Amino acid sequence: MSIGSILNMARTAMAAQQTAVQVASQNISNATTAGYSRQRVDMATSLPTVFPYGSIGTGVSIQSITRSRDMMLDTTYRQNSAGAAGADTTNTALSQIQSVFGEPSDNGLSASLDAFWSAWSDLSTDPTNSAAKSVVVQTGNNVAVTLNRFSSQLSQLDQTNREGMNSDVATINDLSKHIAEFNRQIVSSESSGQPANDLRDARDRLVDQMSSLVGGQVIEHTNGSIAIYVGGRILVDDTSAKQLQMNDGQPPSVSYAGSPNPVDGIGGSLGARIGVSTTTIPGVMSRLDSLAAGLVQTVNGIHSTGTVYTGTPPVASAAGNFFDVTVPTPAGGDNLLTARGIRIAPTLTAATVATAGPGATGPGNNSVALALAGLRDQSVTFTSGATTVATTSFGGFYNQAVGEVASAAQVAQDESSIQGTLASNALNRRESVSGVSTDEELISVIDHQHAYQAAARLVSVVDEMTQVLVDLGR
C-alpha cells in the first residue's frame, strides 16, 4: 500500500466525520421543530484492496443519511390520535348539550314544570281567583318558552357542528392535494437512490394532521409514495388525490365528490362530528319533542273538557285548548307538537282558563284544576312517532333525559381522557425513536470531532513519513 493510499483514507475519514458533525448540527438545530425526524449518517468500510498476501482496507465511506423512523409507531400514534380527536369532539358536544339543560337550576325546565303544576294546585284552592289564573298562564308560557329555547340552542349546536364538518372536509381536501404533491416530489427526489428526508418529514406532518381529522390507513409503496385509505376506499394514491364533499341533510354524510354513496368508517374529529349531528343531538331533540307533544296532548285533553264561566251573572261555555294545536301558517311552519313549536293558545287568557269540569253547576268547581295539578305525579305514555318511548311522569321523563345526557357526557369525558393518554404515550414512544436528544447529539459531535482529529493527525504522520523518504533520496 502506498503513502497516497494512507492519505486517501485520512481524507475520506475526515470528510465522513465532517459530514456526521454537520448532520448532528442539523439535528440539534431542529430539536424543537415539530415533526422533525432525527437523522443519522450510515457509514461503512470502503471496498478493500486485495493483495497476494491478503486484503487491506481503504477507509470509510458514507452509505446514506437516513431518518430514525418506525412505521409501526407511526401507525399506532395515528390510530390513537384519531381516537383522541374523536373522543374530544364528542366530549365537547355533550358538555355543550349539558349546558343547554343547565340542571339543576332555578331557571331550568324542571323548575318551570314544578311551577306550572304548583300554579294549578294553587288555583284549585280558589277556582275563581283571576290572579291565580294569570299565574297559570304565565307559568305555562314559561314551560313553552323554555322548551323553545332548548330546541333553538340544540339547533344552533347542530349548525355549529355541521360548520365544523365543512371545515374538516375542506382541510382534508387541502391536505390530500398537498400529500399527493409531496408524493410526486419524493418519488422524483429519490430516483437517485437516496432518501428525501426533509420531504418525508413534511409529508408525515400532513398525514398526522389528516389522521386526527379522519383516521384512515396509510400504506407506503416501494417507490416511496404512499396511499391513504378511508373507510376502505382510497383517498390519496401516489400523485392522485380524491376530494370529499359534505352532504348537508338529515342525517348528514360525507362522500367522495361526484358520488352519492356515503363513506363509512370515518374516524377522527370528522367521524365524531357526523355522529353528533346524526345521533347525539337528534336523540336529545327527539326526547324534548316527545315531552312537548305529551304535554300539549295531555294538558289540552283535560283542559278542553272543562267549562269556563264569564260575565255577570256567570255564563258557562266550553273551554278551549291550553296549548296551541292550529295548523302552522304558512304551511311548513313549526310543528306545534315539538319543543321548537310548542306555545300557549293565542286565545288563552286568564278569563278563559278552565277550572270547572264538564257538568259543573258554577264557577266554584275545581275538578279540571285538580286534574291538571295531579299531572305532576301522574304517569303518561310518551311516544316518538308510533314508538312508545317511556311511561312515567313529566318530571321523571325529563329527568331521565337529563340523566342520559349526563351519563353519556361522563362516559365521553372518561373516553377522552383515556384516548388522550393513549395518544400521548404513543407520541412519547415515537419521539423516543425519531425525536432529537440534544445531549446525545452533543456526545455524537464530540465523538466525531475526536475521530476527525485522529484522521488529521494521520495526515501529519504521513507528512513526516514523506519527509523521511525525501531526505533518504538526497
How does this structure look, described?
- It is a single chain.
- The protein has 474 residues and is an alpha+beta fold.
- The protein folds into 2 domains: 3-68 and 438-472, no CATH class; 75-190 and 271-422, no CATH class.
- It is 57% helix and 14% strand.
- It is built from 9 helices and 14 strands.
- The strands form 6 sheets. It has a 4-stranded antiparallel sheet with strand order 5-6-7-8, covered by helices on one side. Strands 1-4 form a two-stranded antiparallel sheet. A two-stranded antiparallel sheet has the order 2-3.
- Helix 3 (109-125) packs antiparallel against helix 4 and helix 4 runs antiparallel to helix 6 (268-303).
- It starts with a helix and ends with a helix.
- The relative contact order is 0.15.
- The mean pLDDT is 92.
Keywords, please?
2 domains, 474 residues, alpha+beta, 9 helices, four-stranded antiparallel sheet, two-stranded antiparallel ribbon, 14 strands
Helix/strand layout:
Blueprint: H1 3-29, E1 39-45, E2 49-51, E3 54-56, E4 60-67, H2 71-101, H3 109-125, H4 130-189, H5 197-214, E5 217-220, E6 226-230, E7 233-237, E8 240-241, E9 244-247, E10 253-256, H6 268-303, E11 307-310, E12 315-318, H7 367-373, E13 380-384, E14 387-392, H8 394-434, H9 438-472
Helix pairs in contact: 1-9, 2-4, 2-5, 2-6, 2-8, 3-4, 3-7, 3-8, 4-5, 4-6, 5-6, 6-8
